[in-house]
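Lab notebook, bench 4. The sequencing result for the construct came back, and we need a structural model before the next group meeting so we can plan mutations. Quick request posted to the team channel:

Model the 3D structure of this chain.
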Amino acid sequence: MYLATIRKISFSACILILLMLWNGCTTQKNTWLTRKFHTTCAHYNGWFWGNLSYEEGLKKLISNHKDDYTDILPVYVYAESAEAQSIFTEMDRAIKKASTMIENHTITDKGKHEVPDAVKWIKYCYMLMAKAKLYKNEYLSSIDALEYSQRMYKKTDVKYEAMIWDARAYNQIGSVSKSEELIDYLKSNSKVPKKLIPQVDAVIADYYSRTGQWEEVEKWLEKAVKVEKKKKTKARYYFILAQLAQKDGELNKAFTYYSLVLKMHPYFDLQFAATINRALLYLGGEKGNEEIKKQLTKMLKPTMYIDNRDQIYYALAQIALKEGDNKLAVKYLNKSVRASTTNPRQKAYSFLCLANLNFDWEEYVRSKKYFDSTLISLPKTFKGRDSIVQKQANLQRLVHCLDVITLQDSLQRLAKMDPKARDKYLDSVISGMKQAEEDKKRQEEEAKQIATNNNPNSNAIVANGKWYFYNPGAMQQGLNEFNTKWGNRPIEDNWRRKNKVPDATQLTTSGGDNVKKDSTGATAKGKNTKGAKDSLSNKYSKTYYTKNLPFTDAKMKASTDSLIDAYYNAGDIYKEYLHNYKKSYVDFEELLSRFPDNKYKLIVYYQLYIMYKMVGNTERSNYYKNILLNKYPDTEYAKLILNPEKYRQEVEANKQRMIEFYSSTLQAFHKDNYAQVMINCKQADSLYSRSEYMPKFAYLEAVATGASEGLDAYKNALSRVVVLYPKDSVKILAQSMLDYLNRKKDIPPTPVKDTTVHYSNAADSVYYWVMLIDNKESPKLNDFRMSLSDMNSKTFSQDNLQMDAVFLNPNQQLIILRKFTSTDRAKNYYMFVNANSDLFKAFSPTAYQTFYISNPNFRNLVNHKRADEYLKFFKDLQ
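Done. Here's the predicted structure in token form:
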């Protein structure tokens, strides 16, 4: 009887518990039981495990992230694209856990709206999801979750935490105007929980770092570091404060902050950077500085710094430069390059320092080679990369000119020599080359023998317990030996050969008179051909050196023309790009001295007049001024000297006439008046040959040619546009049409105009930001483009954006920024620009519109010459 009663009670209890659990599972009732049940599940089933995965991902990011310690560190560590992919697994798991809890455990009212804070851990799940998305670089969806949390949990601490992370997200996408509102609220609100004060101070410092207000960054980081409890976070703040103090010239203050970094025992990279930077301050007097150098030299010995030796040598080089010992600095920089193992960024900085030193010493050829090496290792996200690329390109052009001058002078000198004297000279050159190569070969053999004697196990597969290819030291030694023997050889067939043997077709064309031909013009067969090949490709043969000599009048004239072009271009590069006026006027005057009636003489006179005026040499300036005014009074250069302002006004008026002429040509094109289009384009070629609008005229002429003269003429005209204007935006249009024509064999010569426009929302790998603007606003565009370019260089430098302008139709034109690699990046940029209304203050609000567009849609838009359909499509996307 007793047991039966117990069974009944147990059965009833189980039924009651099951009923309570069933009742608690519902999200439609807001009772104590349902709240407890969903809170427990959301906490332990979801948030706990999701947060654990988030912390794992964050830890992985911090351990893998490589900061650029040569620039002021950002306040926070964010994932670059490759790093973001490495933490996708952990962050996706965190997002899935959080979103599952939100979906299954949020208590809602009858209208299916969340009951705020009914389930305590739901708000933390929203925060977890938002933070994980932020570190995945999904900024917009992260912002959505954060702004929902601010609206929904107004009476909790989560509201303020969400505002902090919201400001971080807006800072990261560059929308500082949005984050400014949040920053102002957080700064002025006294209700911010005390535990969040360190985060508030840090996000405010981050905001000011994005806007370049470094004094405010220092102020708020000093506040943050006082209340922050995490040592590794404090160490990062101290390092930034040290960098800011160093930037302002407060070296003693910087020394103190670097010392505080080291006291925090940060992660290895930050500790090493603080040690190096503190040494570079070089503040200890003669005795103390010697101790610093000893400390750095000592750091070269322990194996724990094997991958950091390049940075240590770089630091020693900087100290040598401060001491004025340039020779020692170059020695250390070369050692830094050779010691590089895992840090291509530092290798690039060492090359860059060598490049800049040689540039300052006017050793431009050597400087160019170092810039070449710099760009191989320099990250594409480096802030100053664009200026380095431009500098390298200018030096490349200069070196080419100098090579042409050296080569053509040598060729002409040899061509003018007496044949016997020339043969004797070439014999001595060839003999010297043979002797030099024999000496080099002997020295290499001796060095190899010495190395073998000193290291009998040099050919062993295992070195220091490691297989050769797992041993950085052994690999670097092998690479150095290879480069010493062979130089930096590209990966290609016959890589050992410095001078490749040309193929038969090259020989028949480049050999000239040295290859015998039969009566039909074909190359003679047999031994004669083989002998010609040997002599043309054998650097020990005199024919090898005489094959390109300008013996004929035509070849001598071509050589002289090359010299004239090279002298002029070299002088122009020295002046315009390198700002080395001394070398510029030396080359210009050499040009005038050697070739008095060259085609550049008028512009050279004017350039010399300007340069001598700039350097204060009035006598020489007046000399060239008088030549232009007295001998060439009707030229544009004389007019520019007499009345520069009036001349500039005439140029501007001429530009306006050109724009109007282009618009009328475009109208003729849209009316299918192709004959008039071709007449106008020919006229433009003579009137405006140097104009930036010539590529556009060329494209119109190509299309008109296709409509008038058929498919083959159309293809040839498009190919000409692609070849002549490779950097202009019309190349995109011409190349896309050319590709289409090459695919389709049966296209009628006259293009068929499609009246319907089809746009796609399919994802693409290339997007553009576009501003559509009325042509009547053209006079204001130069200032706008400069402002936009300045903003991009400050805020979006890592995107390497390029700006173009294209006339869409007679009434509108497009300002294009390319290119963005995803729709999110393009959308972020679009939002950021729209939030900066000051950019557009010069324009009438109805005169322009902005949007972003995929590459296929952009081509469609330009081909159809109207934007209204795409603007409607774009509006529907938002």
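The beta strands are 462-463, 466-467, 767-774, 802-809, 812-820, 848-854.
Will bring this to the meeting.
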